[in-house]
Every structure is written in C-alpha cells, then in structure tokens.
Write a structure and sequence with these properties.
Layout (H helix, E strand, L loop, with lengths): L1 H19 L4 H36 L2 H16 L2 H22 L9 H26 L3 H9 L4 H31 L11 H12 L2 H30 L6 H4 L2
Helix pairs in contact: 2-3, 2-5, 2-7, 2-8, 3-5, 4-5, 5-7, 7-9, 8-9
C-alpha cells in the first residue's frame, strides 16, 4: 500500500527531472551556437566587403552611384532589421526563383544558411559603409595627396594607403557591428533557421524548462561577446602599433 501511494510521486519526480535536464539538449544548444557564429562571420565578412565598396563609391564614385548608395544606406538603416530580414528572406528568394524561371531554369531551394548570411550581410553592408566612410575621412589628406602625386592607381592606393591608415579609426565602429551581427542571428529564428535562439526555443518548448534554457542561451551569448572583446582588443592594439597610446597621451 505504501508503494502504491508513493508510485505517482516517484513518476512525477522522474518526469520533472527529465524536463529540467533532458539528455542531448546541451548538444543542440552548442550546435545552434556554432550555426550562429558561422552566420555572423559570413555576414560580417560579406558586409565588410560591401562596406568597403560602398564607402569608396560614396566618396569617389559618380553622382548616380553616390545617389544609389545613399538610398541603400538610408533605407536599410531606417527600416527595422526584423522587417528587412522578412523582406529579404522571403521576397529575395522568391525574386531569385522568378528570375531563374524567366531565363529557363528550374526553381531552386536556397539553403537556409546561405540565405541567412546573405540577408544579414545586406544589413551589415549599409552600416559598414558609413563606418568606413567616416574612417576614410579621418585620414590626413596629405597622405592621399602624396599617393596621388606618386601616380598610384585607386586600387593600389586603397591597399597601401587607405585601408592601413583608416583601420585605427574604423575598428571601434566595426567592433560594434560584429557584436550586432552576433545578436542579429537571433532574428533568423523567426524564419525557422536553427541558430542558437531557435534551438533554445525548441528545447524549452519540448521540456517546458524555459528559464533554464533561455538563461543558458544568454550565458552562451555573453561568453561569445567576452571572447570577441578580447580578440578585438588585440586587433586594435595591433592596428595602433607605432601610434601613441591614449592613456599615455593623457598623462
């Protein structure tokens, strides 16, 4: 009789333990974190490439190119990122398939990882354009004039003068964009991509342990930010080598 009374309690206790500590869910969260990092790195890299071209186009391009880039950066920075992701993810993939059908090809299923990187890269590119444009304007004009006097081509001047000289001015803004990219990956959960936030939602929904899993996801995002800050600090010290330190100049 005693065993009969305690059997339901033992069953409830077992179910609760399975809900709070389900086997294998930790691996799902780590897989989601890896996906988030891959998306962030890809989007940041492509966004940086767009930003370099956009900044150069806004500073040295023709009037039509400058106007187009101004529209691009204004629209992307004005529209909420979640709305942009929905537009670019669904409308963009549909537009690509319509173009393929128009030229005689079959429709394709675009990989979620590729689509996520492409969508966030478009967003990152607009912000990178403005960050890099401001950094280029911070370069002493004498260096640019000297490069032109030596007859350097625009690409050679970009590689040897502009990029190295603007890097110390651009790193703080670019560092912020990297941290934004890592957090923006969470917005892809709304389109069903299995990054960290989506994996956390799935685990929490299956186990009902919402507090446990979302706190765990927050800790993983925090660890990613701390590691990123250490790497960014090293890059910033490297880019400012030979330049007087800020702390030393204030003494």
């Amino acid at each position: 009789m005693i065993a009969t009374l305690f059997t339901p309690l033992l069953q409830v206790s077992t179910l609760d333990l399975l809900a709070l500590e389900p086997p294998g869910w930790g691996g799902n969260l780590l897989r989601g974190l890896v996906n988030s990092v891959i998306i962030a790195v890809g989007a940041y890299g492509f966004g940086l490439a767009i930003g370099i071209g956009g900044a150069y186009g806004k500073l040295y391009g023709g009037p039509i190119l400058r106007d187009l880039l101004e529209v691009y950066t204004t629209v992307v920075r004005a529209v909420p990122e979640l709305v942009l992701i929905l537009i670019l993810y669904f409308a963009g993939t549909d537009l690509i398939n319509r173009v393929l059908v128009a030229v005689g090809h079959e429709r394709i299923d675009i990989n979620g990882l590729v689509a996520g990187i492409w969508v966030l890269a478009v967003v990152q590119g607009a912000y990178s354009t403005e960050v890099l444009r401001g950094a280029i304007l911070s370069i002493p004009q004498g260096q640019i004039e000297a490069a032109r006097a030596y007859g350097m081509s625009p690409l050679l001047m970009l590689r040897r003068i502009t990029l190295p000289a603007m890097l110390p001015f651009a790193i703080p803004g670019l560092a912020n964009l990297w941290l934004i990219a890592t957090k923006d990956t969470a917005l892809l959960a709304i389109v069903g991509f299995n990054e960290l936030t989506q994996e956390t939602r799935t685990a929490a929904g299956q186990t009902k342990a919402y507090f446990t899993f979302f706190v765990a996801a927050g800790v993983l995002y925090l660890l990613l930010t701390l590691v990123s800050n250490r790497i960014i600090a090293r890059i910033e010290r490297w880019s400012r080598r030979g330049m007087p330190s800020i702390s030393g100049s204030t003494r």
